[in-house]
Design a protein that fits this description.
There is one protein chain. The chain is mostly beta strands. Helix content is about 5%, strand content about 35%. The strands form six sheets. Strands 10, 11, 12, 13 and 14 form a five-stranded antiparallel β-sheet that branches. Strand 15 and strand 16 (about 270-275) form a beta hairpin.
Length: about 450
């Protein structure tokens, strides 16, 4: 990397004022095959290290680089995230895009034995609405802290009434957060399922934000027994016709519900928030550990309060080490329905609000006013400001994760789907964000 490029990337990397740097691509023009990095899931390794998996590809910063040749990669830090090993490809094509089918949206699970499973979506060559959403479920594992990995195995994933009747076309689905432990020792995670075109309510769409989608939940019940991936057992909640649906603002019979994010409440209920195409975050809750869910509704700052504004963009919620919650979102409605509207943005600045449990309330978590956490100032990673003449990805799409270690909370996030960074979420940073009592 020449000094001019290195200086530019170093300067852009500091726009969001990170505390940790996990990965910096070698170039922003797609030539080095590593300029797209997203779905950054950091987790506790079985040996006390930090581990991470994410989806990587090579594509130009101005999105002129052609198709995404996604691959699943792994890295590890032995010093609490200060330094990270070079990423290791687990599945998918190499940097040139040649070779095996794309692998994306990887997520980890760790067994008590120390086995690390990484599950991902494998593209088979047959596509539904969107190629990179369509795939079978595969898994690799490591029994030696990520030094070596098994060959991939197919994980049985039953077909849904929302899938294409053509059996050759796999489901369209994405898991975007780490699975959580359920109350019986299983691993529970929400995921987006796109409704295939033959059975979708709307078949002539104006863009990806009108492709019908629902939120469902999968539970891996036997991870603790350390089975082979082909023997992983799955159960489902809010599946098929019981899936969580949210009406599109223009097409009320069309559901757009995506990217469910889960937290456990003090009374053992589960709260789920999700992105929608209404201009708001929506929520649902489960009283039976994720098996059944209530009908979704807009997320408010309190009962009968104001909705939390968000476009079709990630809005993860995490539990803080002090027992409160933090939700990260765009705090704009994407100008839904307005002139020159963009249902999916702008995805900046990134705001944070603090949440607190309210026993007996209709909505179990209430929220403070939002505060700007970080911004890109509308610049691409090449130092060029976003404009109609020079379109750049200047957004903060929080395909993120959250770790709490030794009492310290860290948000791990992709900046402009390019840099992989971490930011400490400290009491001082959240000071003054007061949650209403009534």
């Amino acid at each position: 990397m020449n000094s001019t490029l290195a200086d530019l990337l170093r300067a852009e990397m500091q726009r969001t004022r990170p505390d940790f740097v996990a990965y910096v691509p070698r170039h922003y023009d797609g030539s080095t095959g590593d300029s797209l990095n997203e779905h950054f899931l950091v987790f506790d390794g079985p040996d006390g290290s930090l581990m991470a998996v994410w989806t990587q590809a090579g594509i130009a910063v101005d999105r002129s680089g052609g198709r995404q040749h996604n691959r699943a990669v792994f890295s590890r830090s032995r010093d609490e995230g200060v330094t990270w090993a070079p990423p290791r490809r687990l599945a998918g094509p190499g940097a040139s895009g040649a070779g095996e089918g794309a692998a994306a949206w990887a997520f980890p699970m760790v067994a008590p034995s120390g086995r690390v499973y990484v599950v991902y979506s494998r593209h088979t060559g047959a596509s539904g609405w969107i190629e990179m959403h369509t795939g079978v479920m595969e898994c690799v594992y490591s029994d030696d802290r990520g030094q070596s990995w098994s060959l991939p195995q197919r994980v049985p994933f039953p077909r849904s009434p929302y899938d294409d009747p053509d059996q050759r076309i796999p489901p369209e689905w994405i898991v975007w957060q780490r699975p959580m432990r359920d109350l019986e020792g299983g691993r529970l995670v929400g995921y987006t399922r796109w409704v295939s075109k033959p059975v979708a309510a709307l078949k002539d769409v104006r863009g990806w934000t009108e492709i019908e989608s629902v939120c469902e939940f999968m539970r891996f019940t036997n991870v603790d027994a350390t089975p082979e991936p082909a023997d992983l057992e799955l159960e489902f909640g809010a599946w098929g016709e019981e899936a969580l649906r949210v009406p599109h603002y223009r097409h009320p019979l069309l559901s757009i519900a995506q990217e469910p994010s889960l937290v456990r409440l003090p009374d053992d209920r589960l709260l789920c928030v999700m992105r929608t195409c209404t201009g708001y975050i929506w929520w649902s809750q489960s009283c039976d550990d994720g098996r059944t869910w209530c009908s979704p509704r807009p997320l408010l700052d309190r009962d009968f309060g104001r909705p939390l504004l968000n476009p079709v963009a990630p809005a993860p919620i995490y539990r803080l080490s002090d027992g409160r919650y933090a939700i990260f979102y765009s705090n704009n409605g994407g100008d839904i329905g307005g002139p020159g509207a963009s249902d999916a943005g702008p995805r900046r600045p990134c705001h944070v609000a603090v949440g607190e449990f309210r026993e007996g309330a209709d909505q179990p978590v209430w929220f403070s006013e939002p505060r700007v956490l970080m911004d890109t100032d509308d610049y691409g990673v090449d130092g060029v400001r976003n404009s109609p003449e020079t379109p750049r990805n200047s957004g903060l799409s929080l395909y993120s994760s959250f770790t709490t270690r030794h009492g310290a909370d860290v948000l791990w996030y992709p900046d402009r789907k390019f840099f992989l960074l971490g930011k400490r979420i400290t009491p001082q940073l959240l000071e003054g964000l007061h949650v209403p009592r009534q």
